[in-house]
Amino acid sequence: MLPYEKQLQYKHKQVEETLKRIGKVALPECLPILGAVETEHYRNKVEYTFGNKRYLLKEELSDESINGQQDVAGFHAKGFFDKVVDIKECFLQAEPTNAIRLAVKELGIKNNWPFYDIRNHTGFLRTMQVRLCTTGELMVNIVVAENDEQKIKLLMETITKQFPEITTLFYTVNTKWNDSMFDLDPVVYHGKGFVIEKLEDFQFKIGPKSFFQTNTKQGEQLYKVTRDFAELTGNEIVYDLYCGTGSIGIFVSKLAKKIIGVEMIEAAIEDAKENATLNNLASTAFFAGDVIDICNDEFFTTHGKPDVIITDPPRAGMHEKLVKKILDMAAPTVVYVSCNPATQARDLLLLDEKYVVTKVQPVDMFPHTHHIENVVQLKLKS
User: Mind telling me the catalytic residues?
Assistant: First the structure.
């Protein structure tokens, strides 16, 4: 409910206070928060849920003529795992996202296809992911809970005909009790099976299970800050920890001598290698596994010790063993990209043993939410 300028003030203050309260380390003055130019339709990926229980508004609860047993398409209601908020227009992603969701919903209702019942694990239409790239490429993956060839065929044919702008269309059969995609196999019905997204001049190949920054334009700003904080001259070996599909490492690669990416998820490393090839980058190497196990003396002898470490951990922050590893590696510069300033502050306190915080830059990736990213530059104490 806050005007965007007020949101930015609040988030900036939140980063400052969190780092001071939890971090308890010496801090420079926090640089002004980088707000988003676009505060609506900024997400490149949205996931919708189909369900048979509509979340009723307060004023609807007392109206006996309104029944919550309705087939709906939208988002899970906060605090209710089985109720779905029926969305007419979502402002998170540009069109044709709403048109596609409403078309699938209408097709389901018209053909009496049951919408998914999460309590009883029955139904046909389950979820749908829409990814719209700044390149104009559009990927849609419709997840169904029954392997019904007839229904799937009609669904795919109708959506392909109705939305020729979809460059890649998938369907995925999920009969499991959870919605996670990692152990499922999306089937390409139409298109090349991936989309291409761009950050500056770099291209990234994104499949239905790939991870990628969900706000492309603001992701670019976040990576520019990271690159600036790395202070590269062309002679540095950069270690990109929690590298995911290699996007940060690839983004800073032109100014580095060599990029070494490490990530636990093997599929992400395969994507990273593919993205490096796509951008004709010869001086990159990506490794699947735990940094603690991979980065030993033998590894440093082969690949060189890091001059700069970039770390972009998940919300839980860095494992204590990894913090110790970074202290052991003693790179002159560390750039810590975080989506959770609280866990970042905790880690900064541990890094304080050898490092001093030299720059702090909050970046707002998700307008109208409480989320805030923060980039910190650390230098080895002399």
Answer: 339
